[in-house]
## 1
Amino acid sequence: MPYNLLKGKKGIIFGALNDKSIAWKIAERAFEEGATFTLTNTPVALRFGEINQLAGTCRSLVIPADATDIHQIENLFTKSMEFLGGKVDFILHSIAMSLNVRKGRAYDDLNYEYLHKTLDISAISFHKVLQVARKLDAINDWGSVVALSYVAAQRTLFEYNDMAEAKAMLESIARTFGYIYGRDKKVRINTVSQSPTLTTAGSGVKGIDGLLDFTERMSPLGNASADECADYCITLFSDLTRKVTMQNLFHDGGFSSMGMSQKAMAQYILSFEADNK
Ligand SMILES: NC(=O)c1ccc[n+]([C@@H]2O[C@H](COP(=O)([O-])OP(=O)(O)OC[C@H]3O[C@@H](n4cnc5c(N)ncnc54)[C@H](O)[C@@H]3O)[C@@H](O)[C@H]2O)c1
């Protein structure tokens, strides 16, 4: 149900690839809540994804940009401000990619060129977006920036690989830049640490089905869906959360505070019974 939470607000949304993408759901909800925004992704993703369909529904403009390239980010901000008729109020960073994960390289056999790419795409791109935004003075005072993270930044989760380092860095950038941008412009910067979700990036994580079952059993409220993540991010872009900044906010049904649950223990005990047969 729309509440007009983003009425009159303008934004830029990175990372909608297809209708499974978390950014896609956030774009749909932002539109419902009255926002106008541009959509962006890499030129390759624009060719293979379905973003034009989303742009049509949301009366948005698609502007290609590789988020690791400063010049493309500058162009994105300039064109977005032209299209939107001024500075933006919110930015969503919903970007991740690891070649080590894609190519099946284990954590103790990393390709370091791939590691640099993982960090550049999945974390340093966030710094680049913020730095360009600040130099162009592209975000209105009291604006809000959100990047999507994962609990592997704090805890070791088997098979998350070098994306764990990327998420730790992403969260650190939110804190460090959050101070500077908050001090000077009252712009708030947070990360949302989302439950595992079946998207294109999510499906790349080895053993995602087992992980989804485990986190579902462990979380008192169950896994958070992409639609629920969209609802949460809308509140962070709205004026209802103006004093929340430099935080990593868990949106995971309670998983991050759990050690063991009744449902997970029941399943674990079943595995002993299977072993004893
Ligand atoms: N799916 C999950 O289980 C899960 C859980 C927690 C956090 N997240 C995070 O949510 C975010 C969105 O992922 P998703 O699950 O919606 O998957 P997704 O595959 O739909 O989105 C990832 C996006 O990153 C974009 N991207 C890759 N390289 C880029 C570059 N150089 N420049 C610009 N964009 C680039 C891709 O084109 C794609 O649109 C990621 O940061 C991911 O780590 C996902």
## 2
Amino acid sequence: MATAIEKCVHCGFCLAACPTYSLLGEEMDSPRGRIYLMKNVLEDKLPAEEAQPYIDRCLGCMACVPACPSGVAYGDLLVGYRALQEKERARPPLDALARKMMIETLPYPRRFRLAAAAGKIGAALAPALPDAFASMLSLLPDRLPPPRPLPAVLPAQGDRRGKVALMLGCVQQALAPEIAYAAAHTLAANGVEAQIPQAQGCCGSILLHIGAAEQAQQIARRNLEAIPSDVDAIITTAAGCGSGIKDYALLFKGEPDQDRAADFAHKAMDFSAYLAELGLREARGFDSEVRIVYQDACHLLHAQGHEAEPRKLLASIPNLRLLNIADAGMCCGSAGTYNIDQPKIAAELARRKVESILAVEPDMVVSGNIGCMAQLRQQLKSSGNPLPVMHIAELLWQAHQR
Ligand code: SF4
Ligand code: SF4
């Protein structure tokens, strides 16, 4: 945290990239303002409660990181600061309950399925509930899809070009099991053996994002045991999982598992980045032109720096036309649990994003992150334009099967 703070020279180059600054126009809702606030709290010059609303409004989107010429590691500061503050923070009872529910359900697919079913029963109560609960309920789909089981190993087809371990995700497993299914089969069809360790669990990134570092470490440790080390890469299909695993080195710093965690983080690779590097074996496409918008997930674009890779993959599919939208790098408001914690700002960011998408008249939206997909689906539906929203793995698998 000290290193990040010391590097900031207050130049303000990051301000234009920050979604909350662009929306709220307040210095303290900018990266520079938040760094100043966190510095003063850490130096005991400001009560934490005064800084808290501005830190809570930070999306953790990391758009400020590539925008910073001084190389301020804002993510290290934010993750560390939130973890520290959560230990001492007194939340109002309903707020504390909503947070506990998230911590106890989101990382566990089975619990999440049960909670989602119960949530749909209680959806009629949404208008009478506090914002966080109403937002949680509104994001649930009408019906959860059936599971799509995968074997422990899906062999490579043809000559083997690689061997990977596939992370299944947590919420994603319940909301969209077809994503991991499509990713595993696309990898296999492209000559990559996909190992799918059955003992794996949530990567912990969703907990790290909200400052629940101890719980994140507990469940992350399970993956250090469950994922084999003799693989070329550990593949993630959710942008948030990929960037969360990249933080394992930070999460386990000073712990006996530090080296193992750093190795794990080093091997983690997004599905689209891995396949773009490998190259599609055979690019089958669509019979007629399909116009698509690729929605950059913040944790893929800003946190992992993958802008070109998914576009390279999509460009290799015949008859797929990739459209550019305004402010493509701006967060859609999903950002982990942000649309639950800060529903009003999240809704405005989603509205702006959908406005940019609809302006170019696409046939569908493609993304590499389940959070963005759920957020955009909901906003497209409420705007009266329920376009299909697909994961890039689903699109590649669909194109391959044609
Ligand atoms: S661009 Fe970097 S150095 Fe400049 S104010 Fe923002 S965080 Fe600080
Ligand atoms: S992480 Fe995103 S919302 Fe937070 S300060 Fe940086 S750009 Fe702004």
## 3
Amino acid sequence: MVKHINPKTSGRILELGAGIGPFTNSLIKTGVPEEKLVVLEQSPEFTEILERDFPSANVICGDAKNLSGILATLEIEEVDEVVSGIPLNVMGGMLREIICDEAFKHLKRGGSFVQVSYLPRCPVPKNVIAKHAGKKIFCGITLRNIPPAFVWRIKKT
Ligand SMILES: C[S@@+](CC[C@H](N)C(=O)[O-])C[C@H]1O[C@@H](n2cnc3c(N)ncnc32)[C@H](O)[C@@H]1O
């Protein structure tokens, strides 16, 4: 999920649907400074855990469909990378499209939107990929995950 991320990247790294932070932990383990992380989670309970465990990260309780407003309050226009654990495949098509479009709008060119999925199909809508000139890369299956997870990365060109 985070192998492609350069920890020395100068900008922010946005995580969507962080849960209790397994990808947040991996990002920090690869050397990303905690204060560069913007961690968005809609569950207040999980947000509390994230705030406790990652005190230097920007942890926000909110819905990814409102990403533009959330980033505006933080005075952030662009992020270098997006890591998403949001269960896009179980959402309605319209919501999936809104969330992905919001994320791509704020992703810098050359950055990637990486998404985990428990179904063997890319959950990022084709029209959003086309609109933002994305290049889809299948990164593989993580068998260590239960259930096994599929990972896709869309690079914004
Ligand atoms: C399947 S969990 C994944 C958590 C973590 N990334 C992992 O891999 O263990 C999905 C998380 O996305 C959060 N989530 C779902 N929809 C969201 C939304 N629209 N905005 C922000 N977070 C959302 C859920 O609350 C949940 O914590």
